[in-house]
Amino acid sequence: MSRATLLSGANHTHLQKAHQYLIDIGIHDEEIIAVWCISPENIRATSLAPFAPALAMPCFWPQLCCLSPCIIAGYSATKEVCDGTIYVLGRKNLYRIVDAKVGGGSSPCPCFGFTTGRDSAMQELSGIQGIVAVNSCGEGCCVQLRISHVSIGVPFGSPLANSGATKHQALNTHFVMLVEEPEKAARVIREAKEQFNQPTEAVVAVPVNAMVMERPSSAGVQNIGNDEDDHVKKIRNLKTLLDEELITVEEYEKKKAEILERI
User: Fold this and answer.
1) Per-residue pLDDT of the chain (263 residues; tens, 9 = 90+)
2) 142 by DSSP, 3-state: which?
3) Distance of CA 190 to the CA centre of its chain
């Protein structure tokens, strides 16, 4: 098993789960660099964040009482998914692995009567950009809901994309990792991306004997040059004889052809 760094509360059980996941999807040449899980603090803040503003305003309490089964089910679903989520950084790809069971027949709300089972997504490191560490706190009554995470830019359509959609842009453009010490996590991911992007130089070993055999000798090159000079001089001499009408055109062409055949 590789010497992966376990961060944000991750342990060897999470590392074993990551290795098993890679085996299950048929990836055998990936080296795991780091594994993260979602800390209890991040799970609590993420699960409560959608409902905290309404809970803090007494005017909404009657409506919340009517919606309490859905609120409880939503809180439980988010908590279970976060509990079953790990993030894995490899030499080539960044992965999100989810193994969580939510809802089912005992769910208090029909909106959450499902089972998530296992889910996963991955993105090649060459496609990620804009790695930003964030320590965000709520405002007003939600100030204690601190969510620490790393925001990573991913291509359109990336299976990792889970944030960044706007009114004018329907597709998510970022991947949010809920991790403790986001600055350290961002640094580890940047280093892995830089190492992945470094070009590998192929070194071809050529035997010394082959290099010597393929290199023509300087003497041979000199002899070839001397032969060419002699042929040129002979053709020039023939042309002089032709100009002085000492030989005929037919004789000139015949001798010239013989000389050119020797080159």
Assistant:
1) 458 999 999 999 999 999 999 999 999 999 999 999 999 999 988 887 766 666 667 777 777 777 777 777 778 888 888 999 999 999 999 999 998 876 554 555 555 544 556 788 999 999 998 899 998 665 555 556 778 999 999 998 899 999 988 888 788 999 999 999 999 999 999 999 999 987 655 545 545 444 444 444 544 444 545 666 787 788 888 878 877 777 887 888 888 888 888 76
2) helix
3) 11
Single out the residue of 164, 165, 181, 155 nearest to residue 41, CA to CA: 181
Q: Which residue has tokens 């970022």?
A: 174
Which residue type sits at 111? Answer: C
**Helix, strand or coil for residue 36?**
strand
CA distances from 119 to 33, 60, 68, 88, 219 (A): 21, 35, 28, 14, 72
As a whole number of angstroms, the distance between CA 15 and CA 19 comes to: 6
Among 94, 118, 103, 91, CA closest to 17: 118
Rg of the chain over all Cα atoms, to the nearest angstrom? 37
CA distance 128 to 93: 10
Q: Percentages helix, strand, coil for the chain, rounded to the nearest 5?
A: 45, 20, 35
pTM of the model: 0.66
- Distance from the Cα of residue 238 to its chain's centroid: 72
Burial label for 81, CB within 10 Å (0-12, 13-18, 19+), is: buried
Residue 161: which residues within 8 A CB-CB, separation 6 or more?
A: 154, 171, 172, 173, 174, 175
Are 18 and 98 in contact, with CB atoms under 8 Å apart?
no
Three-state secondary structure call for residue 204: coil
